[in-house]
Write a structure and sequence with these properties.
The complex is a heterotetramer, with 2 copies of chain A and 2 copies of chain B. Chain A is an alpha/beta fold. Helices cover 37% and strands 11% of the residues of chain A. In chain A, strand 3, helix 9 and strand 4 form a beta-alpha-beta unit. The chains are: A alpha/beta, B alpha/beta. Chains A and B meet through helix 2, helix 3, helix 4, helix 5 and helix 6 of A and helix 1, helix 2, helix 3, helix 4 and strand 1 of B. The complex binds pyridoxal-5'-phosphate (2 copies).
């Protein structure tokens, strides 16, 4: 099955490993604490027994240090990761995570700093936040920056709430109850409508044109009713296309009394090349865990700064980090602020990494990264065109979408192609997103991959296309080289098992 | 490659961007520097965080616990920290199994049935819990104890502001430090949930069982928030006390305080609400050969499928921090978690006793506590703590005036297993010395 | 081939990776240095052109940082390691390497300390060396300790040279030219005779008895000629057996005017339980990279302290680390010393780890580790006895030797069993050592493995024994689950290729 | 498990040890301490290595170069650092391929044909080279320049003492700092090898080509030792100059000075001597399907097979340090290695020029140098440097009196890319100030 045409990867023995609970052995310990060095108080005098736990933490594992090390080392080998190769998940910007950034984030002066430290004793951290705000402001062309949101979706919610607060301030309290509509293209990421909803908006969907752009006629039509609070637009959009008419679009929304929110998840196509602020965008979020290379960590943590125009700045979350002369301080006195969206100041550790990324790349390095990211996507677009259906003609920016149209005639679908790609040594691309493209395969190579590997990827995809014709079974049953095959997700959702339980209990249940 | 694509310059890559929108000048961000220079610069910045080098008694939502060396070593395996969300289970089982273990451990500690794969932090987890309570009960009134972490309450205020939820604070008893009995009378059949923190912001342990009975009596859910997760291993679990939703800040589980983030929000509830839970869930699944694996499941709750009807907008969560917490919980294990909790409680008790003996100092609240407590000083707390820092090089706690302008002399002290007796005694002597030398 | 009876391991996809030289691309860079900050001097004025390199480092790779990270991350996944599981290499003591020890070895105050720092500015490092010397002295029961040797063999050379120097001092200069004989059991590790030879000794081999012990009669016979300088004995010996008659042995050698060197590679069987010094041993080496858990690192670095009696102490290498009151200093004034065996003070970084091991285990922890190590070996010995030939009856200490006697009847040999063990998810045991045991399989579980995995190991070995009978081909062609199969080592040695060369050059050659 | 083995106590495990040899009291080593305590204790010890925190100009066999962050990160992958010697190639290809790349890089830099998998360090590598020269030539006389690192010479003395090798020192020229012409006259047909270090201990670059001609003229081998491996990328390679054996200390390749070890010895020679080389060698090999892999090869040279007839007794070498050096060389790459070398040479030249201008200071040797040079001070060097350290917090170099009692005023200064101009100027000012204020 792992046919010889596959040169990039090969199966090799790996360790199986049970759940830690299945490994637990009464009496084992993986820790040691210093002996208690204060005179002991009878426990009952501290916490009365009725408020204390009475299950003796039954079920919590008892294992040794080496057990834990082997447990996680073993299961880690079942993961694909950026350090193993190209990770072309469209919309996710899986770029290399510098080790240097990991190192500086662990400097004790940062890692051991308590968030409630008085300002004068935390000047270094406040400076770091301030400098990152300044850099992001320059990169987006937007004056106001808050680093408080913990991820992109959190930044969206923040931005949308700012729009709402602004409208109320502009048109009078409660005005936003009438301007309830948030316009969102059908190609948008699910977090956009979800965030709009969380902010109490009613979502109306804008059609995309056959060319993959926002349909301006439809937009005008939707803007005709005076109830539009704003538009949430991704640019380049989730099809990887730059919204050429972004200025007109902003104009239409503004004329209708709305504001423009830009989803900045795709900023890796624009850094140093074009600035949302110059396009008429009012507010945007960035994903530091995409564009600014803070590690994804298997699902987080992220950091989703919210950047906005000077006009909207008063509405940003509190506290703000500001500078007076050469001193940095927290400004809580923001009467118009939407309030706080997270305890403390956001994911500081991610900010340290992002600023390190910006400083080590430098202004020209940032632009070069953008160029390389777009160049690589173009190269892939060209390489796959002969074998896969490319639904849109416009030249892609940092990512490109293909479909399974041709392959599906043989019963081979996007999911199958993705799984087969695993056998070829690659992580699959993003699949079935955006939703408006049937059988979408959204490919984002990022700048962190060299030509050799791009060629291998193109060759793998073309080889799979051939297989789809000549030996579809091979693709339909992929992957063939992994420890486990495709899992029955439907069954898993029907009767979900979401936690381990002791055998007896489990069977009892 | 450019030529290969028929392009003459990198600039042409951006032809699809209208000329007038191109940014043609160099960014005014700094020029590139080398590793050596970056390290020097960041070390220098970090050195100005003088507090990071001091013995500290600051808690209030971020706790200084010891993290075994293997925690950071293991999360630093690039297979973990450079992986994406496990959308492709065949090559993501490491992440998926770890999350499944995390969910299980959170259930075990909270005493609940089901837990998700993490929220941003404790404060946003609480906000999501309030929204979930509204979904579940279809009621709009939520009552919260005012003794919940002030920043958590602020975050909830922000989240609910456009949701038509009346988020109503109930004061705490000035004697006990616990939610006031009278306040609870505002519970009624319009109430979606009662929100309490225990140990609460002042370190006082609420009678969660009694509170759950009060809440359930009117058909409301009880939401319990915990900021000091180490308390789980000593205190009766909220689940055992009848809580319907438990949210917590998981930072205590081996995660550095890191100026407030990244932390990790724990979110657990009852089986019957599983499909109302926000965020990701990992479940068991099997392949054709019957081999066990794990997958992201019940995705129909989530934004990428349900869009505006999703149970939450959360997508990226705190995966790697949840992993760190998992490794911490498993390394400390059953006995270690108990011992850490016991040491925290013991050291806090010792510290409280010593401070109480000081001329002019008192502990205003009578309720039992875990490892935090409020101290009432004979002088202005802010000033007292500032001098303690500068003169004795100790961070003595949090001046409550940061959140309560009307409480100039109160401060919150937190003691953990990392505070040696020597540090504690130095704190006590320092307080005595400074308060009398004013 | 990866039959379902194998539950501990399973094949999973891994990345292939070429040699870095094959990945090199002109112009790529993985580094950045600060700009030169001094006024530049014309290079010719610094180094005349005729002394300068003229090949522009042709052939040295040009790669990016992410290329390097992926390169080494990928190839690392082809390795087995302690963190992946049991590593039962007999005589190698592959125990868990604590992460804490790695951390402390990297404390800047240690890692950035230059060896030629004046004593007063390096008191911490000297103290650490001194404290480790003291602990090892207590553990071995020998007064003199030098940490200078870089590995076990280096410690052997040091010890043997000390014996020689002592004899010359005792019997007059040049005496050792007459006492040239070093007695070494036929079961000894190859480094013993090699080290003896390096010190100018003539090696005579002592037979082992059928029971696996030193043959005392033969020893007496060899000691009869007045030319014996000493004996190099491993205890427990390389068969895993404690030399019961160690005292008599030492007596015989001493009476013959010789000294006893003990190879301490097997100290993991004795720490806290018995001390070489109490047995009559004069000098010994330890392997900190075995008994004291400093990581093997794929072949080093090690640290091979040499410990000896007070009588021999004057002959230890210079400099010694000594303590006057509460100050530590280097003592170079050792007229009888054999001299220096390594620049500076030995592998200091390993000493940091070893002392951390000793302090975190504590005295009782050290003994418990010994007990567990021996218990585990006994458990394996018992578990395998039904299926494999156990050439010696005596109860093994920390390691046990079996042979392929029964399996070889079917044409299945030790090498095949070892290779098949790989398919079962284990690293093979040490094979064909000691040389005196035909088809030897030397198994040392160490204390770092739990019962679960011991049972899996025993089950795997027994299953292989069954396969040897029922499906020998499966064993003979193993491993079946690795990226590459058995390599042709004979061909590799016949026409060795020991380095990469550019294609042209290569073909030219 | 004990019971399972029919034992009643752990003590019975040791029944095969005669009772009178059992150690029945607890070891007088310290009792067990926790991670927290160990870290505190070791941090405290380390803090007393005050020199580790100073700008330093110490070289003389251990050099402070910058090591890219990824070097330590990658060698910390447990697949590398917790693996044993790669005796089982099917599950050790990571280590084996890395060694093969190491051997290749060493050959490229030294200009030789074949290199081994590493020796303990530069000093023992030199000793092994001398022994190998004896094996190859069957001659007993070895001539060495006295300008080789003194500790290296001591180590060779120790290694050869029982080998009947006459290890004969030739003085260096007091003007040039290079091996003296006259001395070379002692080369004769009994000479197995001529040993030189270049740049030599005083930083002076020897004319290796001329020396190899002299050595070869009498049928002796030329052994070249290098302590500062960074010099390879600027200076004509010993191989290109005709050396027969090249040994070097590889510590400069990204390895911390770590109080002198672990370092890594490089050992390279000519193809024709491949089977005389000490230590391990990795070679290319193929499996039945023709897939390329790597194996330990030519093992018949080694002790585990050849026993007393082996080319060396070395077994464990410096694997992980060789890996670090490999990662360093590949990360810096062709251009980086050149740039580091150029910066070292430039900064040293600048420093030398500045010091030369100082009243009373001189540079005694005229030969060209790389990044080290001898300074002759107007005062006692030991005292001068001690005050520089205590008063200016700079480690100014090595007082040569440590090795040469008769050279009280000389000290050796080393400058690398890590010494900023600021540090250099501070050194120069410090020297001026202190030497005049005595
Ligand atoms: C286009 C787009 N918008 C928003 C998001 C949400 O960002 P986050 O996952 O950081 O909440 C993503 C990330 O997946 C995205 O791709
Ligand atoms: C019994 C024995 N003696 C000596 C040695 C040599 O020790 P080292 O490899 O540290 O030089 C070993 C290690 O393999 C050994 O097992």
């Amino acid at each position: 099955m792992n046919s010889t045409k596959i040169t990039k990867a090969a199966p090799h023995i790996t360790q199986n490993e049970a759940l830690i609970f299945e490994r637990s052995q009464t009496g084992r310990k993986g820790y040691r604490l210093p002996p208690l060095d204060v005179d002991e108080t009878p426990l009952d005098e501290i916490v009365p027994v009725n408020l204390r736990r009475d299950d003796d933490l039954e079920g919590v594992p008892e294992v040794s240090e080496v057990d834990v090390v082997r447990h996680f080392t073993r299961i880690s080998t079942w993961n694909y990761s950026i350090d193993l190769g190209m990770y072309p998940l469209g919309s996710c910007t899986m770029k290399y995570n510098s080790r240097l950034n990991e190192k500086v984030a662990r400097i004790p002066g940062f890692a051991n700093l308590h968030p409630l430290t008085p300002e004068e004793d935390a000047q270094g951290a406040l400076q770091l936040i301030y400098e990152l705000q300044e850099s992001l402001s320059e990169i987006t062309g937007l004056a106001g920056v808050s680093l408080q949101p913990a991820a992109g979706a959190h930044g969206e919610m923040t931005g949308v709430m700012i729009i709402r607060a602004f409208i109320d301030a502009r048109d009078g309290a409660g005005a936003s109850d009438k301007r309830r509509v948030m316009l969102i293209p059908d190609s948008a990421h699910g977090t956009n409508p979800a965030s709009a909803h969380l902010s109490g908006f009613t979502v109306k969907t804008i059609r995309s044109t056959a060319e993959g752009f926002t349909d301006l006629d439809h937009l005008r039509e939707l803007c005709a009713h005076g109830d539009v609070a704003g538009l949430m637009l991704t640019n380049p959009n989730t099809l990887g296309l730059f919204e050429k008419q972004i200025k007109e679009i902003c104009g239409i929304v503004h004329d209708a009394g709305g504001l423009v929110y830009m989803d900045g998840a795709n900023m890796n196509a624009l850094v140093g090349v074009a600035r949302p602020g110059d396009m008429g965008v009012d507010v945007i979020h960035l994903n530091l865990h995409k564009t600014f290379s803070t590690p994804h960590g298997g699902g987080g943590p992220g950091c989703g700064p919210c950047c906005c125009t000077r006009e909207l700045e008063p509405f940003l979350p509190v506290p703000r980090v500001v500078k007076d002369e050469d001193r940095f301080r927290l400004d809580f006195d923001r009467p118009q602020s939407i309030g706080r969206v997270k305890a403390f100041f956001g994911n500081f550790g991610m900010m340290v990494r992002a600023l390190a990324y910006i400083q080590t790349h430098g202004n020209d390095g940032l632009r070069e990264a953008t160029e390389a990211a777009v160049l690589n996507a173009r190269y892939v677009a060209r390489g796959l065109a002969p074998d896969y259906d490319k639904p849109f003609d416009a030249p892609p920016m940092h990512e490109v979408v293909f479909t399974d149209k041709r392959q599906s005639r043989k019963g081979v679908h996007t999911l199958d192609i993705a799984k087969r790609l695993i056998d070829y040594g690659f992580h699959p691309m993003t699949i079935y997103f955006p939703l408006i493209v049937q059988g979408a395969m959204l490919i984002e190579p990022t700048e962190s991959v060299g030509r050799q590997e791009l060629d291998q990827f193109i060759a793998a995809m073309r080889s799979i296309a051939r297989e789809a014709l000549e030996e579809p079974e091979t693709v339909l049953n992929a992957p063939h080289t992994t420890r486990i095959g495709r899992l029955d997700e439907a069954a898993a959702a029907r009767r979900p098992t979401l936690r381990w339980r002791p055998k007896e209990a489990a069977s009892a249940a | 490659m450019l030529r290969n694509l028929g392009l003459n310059s990198a600039e042409e890559l951006f032809d699809s961007i209208p000329a007038d929108l191109r940014f043609r000048v160099p960014l005014k961000t700094p020029a590139a520097i080398s590793e050596i220079e970056l390290l020097a610069g960041f070390e220098e910045m970090a050195s100005r965080n003088v507090a990071a080098r001091r013995p500290t008694f600051l808690g209030a939502g971020a706790y200084s616990h010891y993290s075994p060396t293997i925690v950071d070593h293991l999360i630093s395996r690039s297979e973990f920290f450079t992986a994406y969300t496990p959308y492709q289970p065949e090559i993501s089982q490491g992440t998926l199994q770890a999350i499944f273990e995390f969910q299980t451990l959170v259930c075990q500690l909270t005493g609940m049935d089901v837990a998700n794969a993490s929220m941003y932090d404790g404060s946003t987890a609480l906000a999501e819990a309030v929204l979930m309570a509204e979904r579940v009960t279809r009621r709009k009134k939520v009552i919260t104890s005012a003794a919940v972490h002030p920043e958590y309450l602020e975050v909830v205020d922000t989240y609910v502001q456009h949701y038509g939820i009346d988020f109503h604070r109930v004061d705490f008893d000035a004697r006990t430090g616990l939610i006031s009995a009278e306040g609870l009378n505002s519970l009624d059949d319009q109430t979606a949930a009662l929100v309490v923190q225990s140990p609460n912001f002042f370190g006082c342990i609420e009678d969660v069982r009694a509170l759950s009975e009060r809440a359930h009596a009117v058909g409301a859910l009880l939401i319990v928030a915990v900021t000091e997760a180490i308390s789980f291993s000593l205190l009766r679990s909220p689940g055992a006390c009848g809580a319907d939703i438990v949210v917590a800040e998981g930072q205590s589980f081996g995660v550095p305080v890191s100026f407030g983030g990244p932390f990790v929000g724990l979110f657990a509830t009852r089986d019957k609400y599983a499909r109302q839970i926000p965020g990701r869930l990992v479940g068991e699944a099997y392949d054709k050969q019957g081999r066990r694996g794990f997958v992201l499941t019940l995705a129909t709750r989530e934004q990428h499928i349900r869009r505006e009807k999703a149970t939450s907008n959360i997508c990226t969560n705190e995966g790697l921090i949840a992993l760190a917490a998992t490794i911490y919980m498993e390394t400390m294990g059953r006995r270690g978690l108990q011992e850490v909790a016991a040491q925290c409680a013991q050291k806090a008790a010792y510290t409280a006793r010593r401070i109480q003996e000081l001329e002019g100092f008192s502990l205003p609240y009578s309720a039992p506590r875990f490892n935090e407590f409020v101290v009432r000083a004979p002088v202005e707390a802010r000033e007292l703590l500032a001098r303690l820092a500068s003169e004795k090089n100790i961070t003595g706690g949090l001046a409550l005036s940061r959140y309560y302008k009307d409480r100039p002399n109160d401060f919150l002290v937190c003691v953990t297993e990392t505070n040696s007796r020597q540090e504690i005694d130095a704190l006590v002597d320092g307080l005595a010395h400074i308060s009398t030398s004013t």
